[in-house]
């Protein structure tokens, strides 16, 4: 899936969609917690999950605009996918899968396409 050649577009979009799901579930959980009786630990977990979703959104947009640091943004996205389990259950598991795959795609993205040479084909510089 390559929409723009030489750009980690697909990794950024997949991560952003997962981040939106995680942040939405987190914000909805915060609203529910604030209207019911809760402990401070529940609130802390929900805030952690929500912030991880927002950090995923920020990191995926920075991945899109700064492709030279794709490994750093991919690692941040990957780590935040596990942090999203705190409070938001990984965005009801679907958001976690999208962010997990987007982080792996960002880390493994290669700007140069692989060239397959046939036997007897010479290298040209």
UniProtKB/TrEMBL annotation:
Transmembrane segments: 12-35, 47-65, 70-86, 92-109
Keywords: Membrane, Transmembrane, Transmembrane helix
Pfam family, one: DUF6114
Record's protein name: DUF6114 domain-containing protein
């Amino acid at each position: 899936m390559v929409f723009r050649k030489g750009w980690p577009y697909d990794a950024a979009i997949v991560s952003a969609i997962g981040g939106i799901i995680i942040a939405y579930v987190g914000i909805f959980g915060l609203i529910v917690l604030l209207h019911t009786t809760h402990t401070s630990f529940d609130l802390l977990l929900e805030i952690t999950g929500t912030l991880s979703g927002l950090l995923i959104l920020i990191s995926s947009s920075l991945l899109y605009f700064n492709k030279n640091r794709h490994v750093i943004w991919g690692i941040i996205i990957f780590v935040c996918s596990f942090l999203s389990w705190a409070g938001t259950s990984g965005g009801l598991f679907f958001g976690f899968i999208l962010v997990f795959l987007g982080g792996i795609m960002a880390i493994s993205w290669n700007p140069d396409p692989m060239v397959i040479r046939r036997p007897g084909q010479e290298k040209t510089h």
